[in-house]
Amino acid sequence: MAKKYIDVMDTTFRDGFQSVFGGRVLMDDFFPAVEAAKNAGINHFEFGGGARFQSLYFYLREDAFEMMDRFREIVGPEANLQTLSRGINTVMLDTGSAELIDLHAKLFKKHGTTTIRNFDALNDVNNLSYSGESIKKHGLQHEAVITMMDLPPGCKGAHDVAFYEKTLRDILDAGIEFDSLCFKDASGTANPNKVFETISMARKLLGENVHLRLHTHETAGVSVASYLAALEAGANGIDMAASPVSGGTSQPDILTMLHATKGTNYNLGDLELNKILKYEDRLKECLADYMIPPEATQVSPLIPFSPMPGGALTANTQMMRDSGNLDKFDEVIREMKEVVEKGGYGTSVTPVSQFYWQQAYANVMFGKWKQIAPGYGRMVLGYFGKTPVPADPEIIKLASEKLNLEPTTENPLDLANREVTKSIAYWKKVLEDENLDTTEENIFIAAACDQKGIAFLKGESPLMVRKGEDKKTTKSGGENMSGNYTVVVDGKKYSVQVAEGNADIQVTPAVETASSPTTENKTAPTAGGKGSLEIKSQTPGNVWKILKSAGDSVQEGEQIMILEAMKMEIDIVAEKAGVIKSIDVKVNDTVIDGQLLATME
Question: Domain check: are 520 and 595 in the same one?
Fold first, then answer.
């Protein structure tokens, strides 16, 4: 009797890179390993989308569309190249309009994609309908997704087999056309028994001919057991990665699963052990210079209490490492339980996982519920769709007050379609004003990445690649020491800002960090004159936008600038009415706790 053929998707070059390096791997560094994977007999790859779209523009000075084209050239026309899309967010920072969602599918088809895996973190089927329609319209394979996780101990609400069955029935009742169905567990927390019961339910409901897959991570230590349970329940496909970007926060290793299925009735894609060994050796050579954060290689016993996806965990710890507050990591993880429970139990997968993280981070850094992360607040207010269970009423009220938004039950796609800034015409005009080509690719890059996309198109984006032991390197491999440093000279502390390239080194007296930061911007008299106020940062981060200039009048509570910390927008506001005296930072500057941002009088 022939063994059952199991389709293996190699996630190394998308989820593997995201889970270990935060997506920051240069294409010329890894393309030789793609060739080796092809020679090993792998013909199904996850090669783009998700955070591996924006990270190329944000950190690598690379074009994701060019990367996709070159990947296709290497593997040939027959390979199944798959990307990850967040429903009506696609690969954008926020909900897209219908025309941008359609453009996403059109461009990804144009640039070599075969299949788009289409998920919604809230399992709101309305968010899969139009995006799925666009995927099919442009001749792509549509892999519909139901997102999974286990709830933190002591929590109840959704995320049982009955909830997943209801979601699947909603997909079928909505008439959403799909070529395969995936159960996606980004945090790796769904226990193997629930996986077995869920896949069994789906197989019974869909019949024998529908292609079923499971996607999970090793983060919580149960991925191999979950995959074996899924196969036993009737799954047709699983996702794996290659060392050194396998295990830990990523998918289990291809070799591990080949070993785990020895003596079973499963044939993992006709993969041969010796060829996979050669492929993994080549990949290790390609990535030898890259810093692998230790948390990326570990199973974390804390994850079932959080839950934090592997692809987000290392991105967040790297940002904390850059900001100098990695010591707060365990506190943030512990705070996740309450944040998940009060937020309505959306699945901890992008973007909701980042909303959870941002809110947990804010609760640790600024005090419990003293600040509402914008994404988290908009989620509980209904702006991304319906949460699996209603969010906590007090949190909804707090979010409404903090964000000055009313709760809504309106379809998020309808809301996006009314926003001028989510139209193709708007971004075409932005490109024209910047004297940039108005190709469809450029329009989508700008719409998906906002000002960071414009910076890339203008050749002004930063290069932030971690190679060597905790170093940031330039494309040529040399060390880039840009960033903030505190040095002590004759007993006095100075903050030293070093810019990349030949920019000036700026030295200013260092500001002591407050021992217990609050949500208020600390102010103090400056040396510049009586009545002047200093506005200082209360968290490490980057200057995202500057909204006011010296000489501008402002009202109390009016925004002066916006910082970005942990992918969260931190409003810097005027504490009283007055006039801006100075703006002491620039866009893209990295700032530290207590750093002077502006003065006013």
Answer: yes
Q: What is the CA radius of gyration of the chain?
A: 24
492, 566: one domain:
no
Three-state secondary structure string covering 4-30: EEEEEEECHHHHHHHHHHCCCCCHHHH
Range of the domain at 582: 515-600
Q: Which amino acid is at 325?
A: N
* 99 phi/psi in degrees, rounded to 5: -70, -30
Residue tagged 């208020």 (tokens): 520
Pair type for strands 553-554 and 559-565: unpaired
Quickly count: other Cβ atoms within 10 Å of residue 291's Cβ: 21
Give CA–CA dist 518/560, Å, rounded. Answer: 18
The type of residue at 29 is D
- Look at residue 582 and tell me if it is in a domain: yes
Question: Which amino acid belongs to residue 503?
Answer: A
Indicate the number of domains in the chain.
2
Residue 37 near residue 242, CB atoms below 8 Å? yes
> Per-residue pLDDT tens for 439-464?
999 999 999 999 899 999 999 998 98
Q: How far is the C-alpha of 349 from the C-alpha of 217, rounded, in Å?
A: 12
Contact between 462 and 479 under an 8 Å Cβ cutoff? The reply is no
CATH number at residue 524: 2.40.50.100
Crossing angle of helices 424-433 and 440-457, rounded to 10°:
40
pTM value surpassing 0.85: no
Confirm whether 533 is domain-assigned: yes
Helices (H), 22-97: 27-39, 51-55, 64-75
